[in-house]
Design brief:
By secondary structure, the protein is mainly alpha-helical. Helix content is 73%, strand content 3%.
Length: 247
């Protein structure tokens, strides 16, 4: 394998013996204690049953890590030249990559190992790849928050955020002097149609409230009889940038 092919090297490393060991084997004892607590009277988990359970969990974790590495490698194929240029020209980014990115990578791998949804694993990989390019601008704490957010939102919730941001940007550009409330209301109300889903008004409001709880959107002040609307914040726009695939 050529040493000048970092993405291939990254994928090969994931297939090494070190990666093949079950990363969840350390949970064997607490897992056994848990099964004893929930076992029916007289029931007992055999050693073989425990090994099978741990092997299944370990296999799931390995599959998650492989997915993470594959998405990361694919993304870096497109970002690689830009990252290398920035490292050569930007001292702050070079320092960030040397001092902060390794720890963030470990955090991302830990989160990926525990994910249930493949899409959330991909988001973690994209965030780490984007951080390799611009992480010094936002700092390690912000990148860590992005990763926490990426595993806390569903695909549907992220789609609402993306569409709301896109529609708000269009409305703001078309009506730069209009009241923010009116602009945000029109943008927000178009989201279900743009999403081509059967999302109800209550479901949309629930998503808006969740996005607000993550600091990605804010509820716009409206009259008591009006339907609540939400507007993406700068952090919401930033999050979208972090999870977008490189082009």
């Amino acid at each position: 394998m050529p040493i000048d092919d970092p993405t291939t090297a990254l994928q090969a490393l994931n297939l090494s013996d070190e990666r093949q060991r079950s990363p969840l084997s350390r949970f064997a004892k607490p897992f056994l204690a848990f099964t004893k607590l929930i076992a029916p009277p007289g029931g007992e988990l055999t050693l073989g049953g425990l090994e099978a359970a741990v092997d299944w969990l370990g296999g799931k974790a390995e599959a998650n890590l492989k997915e993470f590495v594959d998405v990361l490698a694919e993304d870096l194929k497109y970002r690689g030249a830009q990252v290398q240029r920035l490292l050569a020209e930007n001292e702050a980014q070079r320092k960030f990559v040397a001092d902060e990115l390794p720890g963030l990578a470990v955090d991302a791998l830990r989160r990926a190992e525990q994910c249930r949804a493949k899409e959330r694993i991909g988001r973690l990989a994209k965030i780490l790849a984007h951080a390799a390019e611009v992480g010094s601008q936002d700092g390690p704490d912000a990148v860590e928050e992005m990763m926490a957010t990426a595993t806390g939102l569903s695909d549907a919730e992220i789609l609402v955020l993306q569409l709301a941001a896109e529609e708000y940007r269009k409305e703001k550009a078309a009506h730069p002097h209009e009241a923010q409330r009116a602009v945000a209301a029109r943008a927000w109300m178009r989201v279900p149609g743009m999403a081509k889903s059967s999302m109800s008004e209550d479901e949309l409001l629930s998503v808006g409230a969740k996005l607000e709880s993550f600091g990605l959107a804010v509820r716009v002040e409206t009259q008591p009889w009006e339907t609540p609307v939400y507007r993406p914040l700068d952090r919401g726009h930033k999050f979208i940038e972090y999870i977008s695939r490189a082009r």
